[in-house]
TrEMBL record:
<dbReference type="Pfam" id="PF00117">
    <property type="entry name" value="GATase"/>
</dbReference>
<dbReference type="InterPro" id="IPR029062">
    <property type="entry name" value="Class_I_gatase-like"/>
</dbReference>
<comment type="pathway">
    <text>Amino-acid biosynthesis; L-histidine biosynthesis; L-histidine from 5-phospho-alpha-D-ribose 1-diphosphate: step 5/9.</text>
</comment>
<comment type="subunit">
    <text>Heterodimer of HisH and HisF.</text>
</comment>
<keyword id="KW-0963">Cytoplasm</keyword>
<keyword id="KW-0315">Glutamine amidotransferase</keyword>
<feature type="active site">
    <location>
        <position position="202"/>
    </location>
</feature>
<keyword id="KW-0368">Histidine biosynthesis</keyword>
<dbReference type="InterPro" id="IPR017926">
    <property type="entry name" value="GATASE"/>
</dbReference>
<keyword id="KW-0028">Amino-acid biosynthesis</keyword>
<feature type="domain" description="Glutamine amidotransferase">
    <location>
        <begin position="7"/>
        <end position="216"/>
    </location>
</feature>
<feature type="active site" description="Nucleophile">
    <location>
        <position position="83"/>
    </location>
</feature>
<dbReference type="GO" id="GO:0016829">
    <property type="term" value="F:lyase activity"/>
</dbReference>
<comment type="function">
    <text>IGPS catalyzes the conversion of PRFAR and glutamine to IGP, AICAR and glutamate. The HisH subunit catalyzes the hydrolysis of glutamine to glutamate and ammonia as part of the synthesis of IGP and AICAR. The resulting ammonia molecule is channeled to the active site of HisF.</text>
</comment>
<keyword id="KW-0378">Hydrolase</keyword>
<protein>
    <recommendedName>
        <fullName>Imidazole glycerol phosphate synthase subunit HisH</fullName>
        <ecNumber>4.3.2.10</ecNumber>
        <ecNumber>3.5.1.2</ecNumber>
    </recommendedName>
</protein>
<dbReference type="InterPro" id="IPR010139">
    <property type="entry name" value="Imidazole-glycPsynth_HisH"/>
</dbReference>
């Protein structure tokens, strides 16, 4: 079977080289580019992101990245977002009083985490749902987070007519270790061809490597 081809989307944001190396180690051939045609043709598209929501959206729009994402998803072609690359998939984000329109692939607001210590930085466990493909074999492992903003309310509504393959699987995490002192937020989503993580799998050691392999394996039949 042919090696999956993955594009890491280059729009001026994210740990690009580390993302490329991590996906290569997961078993894919990887190209770093912002070229629309190349990104459309790949088996998988990885959207990284660090920094501010507004800056990431500005960079993404400069290469028509939101169109690339939308066109791939309309054809059922896999896309995976990481950190702010996940956040920009939602409708909007608000930072320092500035509200910015996101890609709108999912409803919801990216907002400041309500916790005693922000940013939420370091290793944390997650609450993965039953049936998760992304977290298969690493459900109990810790992953590396570094962020001050997140999605605190999942608001996508589905119904009985939504195909089972497109029913979203939402993974949660919580800041802090003291009962009642933390804040729950979306740590990952699996929703048809669109997957994303708030944490950095490329910085999450063996667990992150296994998670990326889980994603790359799905591309072989994409």
């Amino acid at each position: 079977m042919a090696t999956p081809q993955v594009v890491v989307l280059d729009y001026g944001s994210g740990n690009l080289r580390s993302a490329v190396r991590a996906v290569e180690r997961a078993g894919a051939e990887v190209e770093l580019t912002g070229d629309l045609d190349t990104a459309m043709a790949a088996d998988g598209l990885l959207v990284p992101g660090v920094g501010a929501f507004e800056a990431c959206m500005t960079g993404l729009r400069a290469i028509r990245g939101e169109r690339i994402i939308a066109r791939r998803l309309s054809g059922g072609r896999p896309v995976m977002g990481i950190c702010v690359g996940m956040q920009i998939l939602f409708e909007r984000g608000i930072e320092h009083g500035v509200e910015t329109e996101g890609c709108g692939e999912w409803p919801g607001l990216v907002e400041r985490i309500q916790a005693p210590i922000v940013p939420h930085m370091g290793w944390n466990t997650v609450e993965a749902p039953q049936g998760s493909t992304l977290f298969e074999g690493v459900e109990k492992e810790r992953f590396y987070f570094v962020h001050s903003y997140g999605v605190r309310d999942w608001s996508l509504v589905t119904n009985d007519r939504t195909p089972e393959s497109h029913q979203p699987l939402v993974t949660w995490a919580e800041t802090g270790s003291d009962a009642g002192a933390g804040d729950r937020f979306v740590a990952a989503v699996e929703n048809g061809p669109l997957w994303a993580t708030q944490f950095h799998p490329e910085k999450s050691g063996d667990a992150g490597a296994a998670l990326l392999r889980n994603w790359v394996k799905t591309l072989k039949s994409a």
